[in-house]
Specification:
nine-stranded antiparallel sheet; single chain; alpha+beta; 15 strands; about 20% strand; two-stranded antiparallel sheet
Length: about 425
């Protein structure tokens, strides 16, 4: 397991900064002792100053400024934020309201629907079963779901688990998403694909899907003999201690600390009903969680829980399967963006720093369901993960990941002596 070292500045360093070396001719030793005792009496401080804590405090201030500004500008109703570095959680916080009618406050333990961020859970859960030898990425969907059939039977026999998880099955854009949102069962939807004419050979084109993606969950149910929700609980939620995460409507509805969905009407945010969409297609959009849960999820994804899934297997899920063409998507307009691909439930973006020319990779997904909005991002080279959950549609979500990442970098680039100087100034 990788560990991040926390740098501790002992009291002697603080004393040296407060009292630079001077000769005995300049001041007598009793005066030095008296001065130290005076400061301790006026402002007691711990034996050690934890530099890591100072960075966390500065980060918290910057994050709070960012989201409080969004609240003042009426861009959001509520938001919850989780940030991890290595195997440590470096920020958890909530902003705004859970429900504008009741004025309930959002905290880090508030539960949100995460929408298509659920697809990352779907890809990883399939990967766990591949690692265990129960599935293969090349397994044909029709072998597990016999009533799955396209108009072209040859194409039916070509579509694999990897294809549905990477949106590369060659189907028309968002095929039968309407049936998913109408609550139709996946078994019935699978039989309806016989009316669909595939547009391209599987594996040759990216075309985003919800219904086809969710068939991966149906495959897992067939191979385990358990419901998808049960398998998610057993393989992911329980071992990672994601205690408030769930995959069904009833659990969400009955939870005490839940963010309610909102929409803006005539310039004012108004609560809208929570609905059951996508709980019939959990792998595509049916996960509920708090950022406390998501922080544990991100640390796992960064490779810090090999007992749940090996890093090599996680990287297999993150391996690009198909290129996402075009430049119109919001993430394709982020600074330094070079190219985007889709892995197995995850987007993979490549960036080039315009100043240094350095290359970097970002693992990412966004989600939107029932007026909830979500973003998750992993920076593997920096061992950083960011999750932001909203209980309203908001344009802020389009850039919240690069904005928060920029804040993190700015804080981490502050020199230690500057942090110490600021801390000393407050003594």
């Amino acid at each position: 397991m990788k560990k991040c070292l926390i740098i501790i500045a002992p009291l002697v360093l603080l004393t040296a900064l407060l009292f630079p070396p001077i000769s005995e001719s300049q001041i007598e030793k009793p005066q030095i002792a008296q001065t130290i005792q005076t400061i301790i009496k006026e402002k007691p401080f711990q034996e050690d100053i934890n530099i890591g804590d100072l960075y966390k405090e500065r980060l918290a201030e910057a994050i709070e400024d960012y989201f409080n500004k969004a609240l003042r500008q009426n861009k959001i109703v509520g938001a919850s934020v989780g940030i991890v570095k290595c195997d440590s959680t470096i920020y958890l916080g909530g902003f705004g309201k859970r429900n504008t009618r009741l004025m309930d406050r959002v905290s880090e333990e508030t539960i949100f629907r995460v929408g298509s961020v659920s697809k990352g859970f779907g890809g990883i859960l399939a990967g766990i079963h591949v690692e265990e030898g129960l599935l293969s990425w090349d397994d044909k969907i029709v072998d597990y779901i016999p009533n799955f059939e396209l108009r072209n039977k040859n194409r039916t026999n070509e579509i694999t688990l990897s294809h549905v998880l990477s949106h590369s099955a060659g189907l028309p854009y968002h095929s039968y998403t309407n049936l998913v949102e109408d609550g139709v069962s996946l078994d019935e939807i699978a039989g309806s694909f016989k009316n669909i004419k595939s547009t391209r050979k599987p594996g040759t084109i990216y075309s985003y899907q919800n219904a086809a993606f969710a068939l991966s969950g149906e495959v897992i149910e067939r191979v385990t003999g358990k419901s998808f929700g049960e398998v998610m609980q057993e393989k992911i939620f329980t071992p990672l201690e994601m205690v408030s995460a769930s995959t069904d409507y009833e659990t969400l509805k009955n939870a005490d600390n839940v963010a309610q969905p909102h929409q803006k009407r005539y310039g004012r945010w108004r609560k809208v009903p929570m609905n059951t969409k996508y709980f019939n297609a959990i792998a595509a959009g049916g996960v509920n969680a708090s950022v406390v849960d998501m922080a544990k999820w991100m640390k796992f994804l960064l490779g810090h829980n090999p007992e749940v899934m090996k890093s090599a297997s996680i990287n297999d899920v993150f391996t690009p399967r198909i290129k996402v063409e075009g430049k119109s998507k919001y993430y394709q307009r982020w600074a330094g963006h070079k190219s985007s691909y889709y892995g197995l439930g995850w987007r993979i973006h490549n960036f080039v720093d315009r100043t240094t020319g350095a290359s970097s990779k970002l693992i990412h997904h966004g989600g939107h369901v029932n007026s909830y909005r979500s973003e998750i991002a992993l920076y593997p080279q920096e061992d950083i993960g960011i999750t932001v959950l909203f209980n309203s549609p908001t344009k802020l979500a389009r850039n919240v990941i690069p904005d928060i990442h920029k804040i993190i970098k700015e804080v981490m680039n502050i020199k230690e002596d500057e942090l110490l100087s600021d801390e000393i100034a407050q003594l």
